[in-house]
Design brief:
It is a single chain. By secondary structure, this protein is α/β, with parallel strands linked by helices. The chain is built from 5 helices and 15 strands. The strands form 4 sheets. The chain has a 4-stranded mixed beta sheet with strand order 4-7-6-5. Strands 8-11-10-9 form a 4-stranded mixed beta sheet. A hairpin with a 2-residue loop joins β2 and β3. The longest helix has 14 residues. The mean pLDDT is 91.
């Protein structure tokens, strides 16, 4: 049996509109039309339930942890909004991290955490005592795709895939989709076009292939290909996949897992 993935959580409320507005303002988050927030790989749906009190009875039972890169900047922002702090921002030397906890309008505890270099040093020391770890064991990975013409690439990803950059910088475009991210960067080098450089997973490969074709994307390998076998952790027995090239020659793949 496949181990399930924690993809999202439901934050129920008797006044979801108020709660969504609070998270949008307090955390600079942007919910979709259904009230679904995407915080990295895990999403949070703020939705209505009629069997709830206006405020949670036991706010410490489930605490929402949000990792930030500058907790002091968040503290100033939240102070300006007049939020209630139940745990002032403080540095905990034993863990090497900053913590601070506020209360949302429904009484839920929202904890901000900033991990410091000291945290990672302490963590590596702990791991060293119980097992091996490498210099990148705690690193996050992200795809980087080269583009000889960054504006051309930007137009292509918008027109063909419906993706707009979440952030931009000189020479780079950062995209987010499904809680993951990738970067398209200006480069004098050219993509080889001989192997898959990035992959997406979807729930309906037929519909995805049809929409890509409708947007003018030419599929490689004569359309959808059936692939036998998959990684044990997925529980899948195979995959159905398509491939295509972006405007810069990068080969992108899209797959749908198959379960017998």
């Amino acid at each position: 049996m496949r181990t399930p993935n924690l993809e999202s959580l439901l934050l129920a409320s008797d006044d979801p509109a108020r709660l969504r507005d609070w998270y949008a303002t307090a955390l600079d988050a942007h919910p979709d039309a259904d009230g679904f927030f995407r915080f990295g790989p895990v999403g949070m749906l703020v939705d209505k339930r009629d069997d709830l009190a206006p405020r949670t009875v036991e706010p410490g039972r489930v605490i929402l942890n949000y990792h930030v890169t500058d907790i002091q900047a968040h503290r100033r922002h939240l102070d300006a909004l007049g939020v209630e702090w139940v745990g002032e921002v403080e540095y905990r030397d034993d863990g090497g991290a900053w913590f601070g906890t506020v209360v949302d309008p429904d009484g839920n505890y929202v904890q901000l955490i900033e991990l410091t270099p000291e945290y990672w040093s302490k963590r590596r020391a702990r791991h060293g005592a119980v097992g091996a770890s490498g210099p990148l064991s705690d690193a996050r990975s992200a795809v980087r795709l080269p583009a000889r013409d960054l504006e051309r690439a930007r137009r292509w990803y918008a027109e063909k895939l419906g993706l707009e950059p979440a952030e931009t910088r000189d020479g780079g475009l950062s995209y987010e989709c499904g809680g993951t991210s990738f970067v398209v960067f200006a480069s004098a080098g050219a993509a080889s076009g001989t192997h898959t450089q990035m992959g997406f997973t979807v729930g309906d490969i037929e519909a995805t292939a049809a929409e890509l074709r409708a947007r003018g994307v030419a599929l490689l390998e004569d359309g959808i290909v059936d692939i036998a076998g998959h990684y044990p952790s997925t529980g899948a027995t195979g995959e159905r996949a398509i491939w295509f090239q972006d405007s810069e020659g990068n080969v992108l793949g899209v797959g749908q897992l198959v379960y017998d």
